[in-house]
Write a structure and sequence with these properties.
- 38% of the residues lie in helices and 24% in strands.
- It is α+β, with helices and mostly antiparallel strands.
- The protein has two domains: 7-280, no CATH class; 285-431, no CATH class.
- A hairpin with a 3-residue loop joins strand 4 (121-123) and strand 5 (127-131).
- Helix 2 (39-55) runs antiparallel to helix 3 (62-79).
- InterPro entries: DUF6602.
- It comes from Lusitaniella coriacea LEGE 07157.
- Pfam families: DUF6602 (PF20247).
């Protein structure tokens, strides 16, 4: 019984026929005139890139191999002439930072606005950190796309697409037009259906906002997320999909690089960038998963001191921050001057409230008096009250100014203490 040919075998046969036909047509047209469109040029570029890729197999060190293969694509983008000069290509690997305090994983290639770019950090000739506002999009480059490399590439790109343009302060505003993310590989030993399966698994576990805009395998074809029969490329198209379907487009004429360039140019045109504000990045907020927060009093409040182990970083877990934000979101903010007058039983001063209009959300789930939770009493050796001291942290998160009393921080363990003490206690409990 004759074995049915696989999808890959059928595609190889179709490609050989169509490529041979295209070669003949190109040769005949070239006799008639020198330039007859970019089809021939992209055919040459793709063939040369695959030759250059094969040559890199002689390199022994893994990092050198990776750098060489990134350079092949980087040089095409920079020297082919198909990328408008207003778009610049990173020379080194890049990490992209957001004003929210989040930062992407290391990205192979970033496309950015050179006229308005500021480099936030540079470490020799290893990598640079760019502000999100200057970056149009990123490309992760893989050599041979295995299942492991596909998953890691998608993860890296998702770390970029989760970034938000904006600040976590009272006056913050998040601009739209997230950057785009492309995965580019030279080849893959995975079957077509296995690639589709892995992309379907990824799409089922991640929000649409984290999907890459396209996945290219230079000698095979490309994949898009979309709906049955139609692939989508822009963020808006992908994020508004009602149902998600992985669409594959086999390269049957050796013009996959042309499709890559067309999609890239469309995404660049669709993405807006802006001039970054350096002050946004002076001291970034602290992060906990997708959320971020600032101690309003900066480094003074960010650290605590353990009598046994010395200084430590005070942290708020994702669960604790969620708890604080959820409660405060349901409460009514209070004028901060008014709150202090209540605490110290001072007379009302409407003029002062009008002059200083800052509103603060005071975390107070037990609805205790402000005097009881925002101050604590200092006593002498005989137990006599000497004075009252203010006892709270001020936070900025989720576009709110939040007052977090020490009373609740301690009682509900909202802010971490000394890590070393916590580990020692955990170890002691296990033994007992």
């Amino acid at each position: 019984m004759t074995k049915e040919p696989s999808f890959e075998e059928e595609e190889k046969e179709i490609r050989e026929i169509l490529v041979e036909s295209a070669k003949r047509a190109i040769a005949l047209r070239s006799k008639d005139r020198e330039f007859h469109g970019v089809e021939r040029e992209f055919y040459y570029h793709q063939a040369q890139m695959l030759v250059d890729y094969e040559r890199t197999k002689d390199i022994k060190h893994p990092r050198d191999i990776g750098n060489a293969r990134e350079t092949i694509l980087r040089e095409f983008l920079k020297t082919s002439g198909y990328l408008p000069k207003k778009y610049s290509v990173s020379e080194l690997s890049v990490r992209v930072a957001s004003g929210t305090g989040h930062i992407s994983n290391e990205i192979d290639i970033a496309l950015y606005d050179a006229e308005n770019l500021i480099t936030l950090m540079k470490r020799q000739d290893v990598y640079e950190v760019y502000p999100l506002e200057s970056v149009y999009g990123v490309i992760q480059v893989k050599s041979n796309l295995t299942k492991k490399e596909l998953i890691s590439g998608l993860k890296n790109l998702a770390s970029f697409k989760t970034l938000k343009r904006g600040l976590v302060t009272k006056n913050c505003s998040f601009s739209g037009h997230k950057g785009f993310a492309l995965l580019f590989a030279y080849c893959s030993d995975m079957t077509w259906l296995d690639i589709v399966k892995e992309l379907e698994i990824f799409s089922s576990k991640h929000p649409r906002s984290q999907y890459p805009n396209a996945i290219f395998i230079l000698n095979r074809g490309f994949f898009l997320f979309g709906e049955p029969g139609k692939g989508m490329t822009t963020n808006n198209q992908i994020e508004t999909l009602k149902t998600v379907s992985v669409q594959g487009f086999p390269d049957r004429r050796n013009i996959n690089l042309y499709h890559f360039q067309v999609i890239l140019l469309g995404l660049l045109e669709d993405t807006k960038v802006s001039v970054p504000n350096l002050s946004t990045y002076f001291r970034l907020p602290l992060t906990t998963e997708e959320k971020s927060y600032k101690f309003t009093w900066g480094s003074f409040a960010e650290t605590g001191k353990c009598e046994k182990h010395g200084y430590f970083v005070r942290k708020i877990s994702s669960e604790s921050l969620e708890k604080i934000i959820n409660w405060c979101s349901q409460s009514i903010p209070v004028n901060w001057v008014r709150a202090m007058h209540i605490v110290f039983n001072s007379p009302k001063n409407e003029e002062a409230y009008k002059r200083q209009t800052q509103l603060v959300y005071i975390y107070n789930p037990e609805h205790l008096s402000l005097a009881d939770i925002l101050t604590y009493k200092l006593k002498d050796e005989d137990g006599n009250v000497i004075t009252k001291r203010l006892g709270f942290d001020m936070l900025e998160s989720n576009d709110m100014n939040i007052c977090l009393p020490f009373y609740y921080s301690s009682k509900e363990e909202l802010i971490s203490g000394c890590d070393k003490c916590a580990k020692a206690l955990k170890k002691k409990r296990k033994k007992s």
